[in-house]
Structure prediction request, 315 residues.
Amino acid sequence: MANGDFHFVMISAMYENGGNTTQRLLDGHPELFSYPFESQPGTKYVLDHLTSMFPVKYRWPVFALSAEIEQDYDAIIDEECKVRIKTPQSSKFRDYPMQLDDKERKAAFVRLMQGKPRTRGNLVEAFYRATAETWKDARRTGREWVHVGYSPIIGVDADKIVKDLEHGHVLHIVRNPWSAYADTKKRAVPLSLAHYIMGWCINQQAALTYTEMHPGRVHVLRFEDIVVDPVRVLGDFLGKVGVKSSISLARPSWNGNPLEQVFPWGTIRNPTSEANRATAEELTRAERPEIYNRTRPLLNALGYDSFWDTMRRAA
Prediction:
């Protein structure tokens, strides 16, 4: 897997839209090497019109022109993985065994960059290849040839991803805004409805725009469709990348080990249609129409008009 062209799928999703669930469903596929957690490839050098809306750790990275390769590695925030392997007692994933040494990974990253131009695409490739190479207890089939990453909201940078990586794809996951906001309210410090829904809208608008600008490279799937039939829906997507479907897509896993629930990878514990609907119905009578009013221009394009109709009747 360390040789040949770099084939890559970056999953994107607004918070609580099913990105973690999708990554966990892809995790056990025999042809995929799925990053263990959110890969969070952004750096502190990201600074643009979206910086005030979204944390830089979730963005496509920017590297300092004056930096050395070692500094490039250190600049990648990768918070969830670095906390797990450097200070495991502080990680929410501390109960999941993992043999990955950050110094060894950094050394592999530097080696993989030797003799290559210091481009963003090459640096990102080296980061994912180094992780796959040095994760000692990763369960492997020997047939992995596509790397899979996930970073929330990174679809806003989809144009950069497909430009930097010749064989890169962006898979954006969208979930109805009512269930999504109801789940984000369960966070310790939740965003306000106005703040959250603005971010939701920006993400979906970016995804729809980039699917038109980069057909065949940027893809949009609905969480609601995935949970009904993940083998078919995700299998159809993988076919566009050149990967065969697999029964492993039927249930979430981590490092190939089945998970009874997706938590703590995300707020969504049980990815089912019934749980998704029940979550939306946790909202107050005032929140439901406000979300509709704030998302209305996008609902038809994403196929959520009928979801709102049933929400309105239930209220």
Q: What stands out?
A: The chain has 13 helices and seven strands. The chain has one domain: 7-246+254-314. The radius of gyration is 19 Å. Residues 193-213 form the longest helix (21 residues).
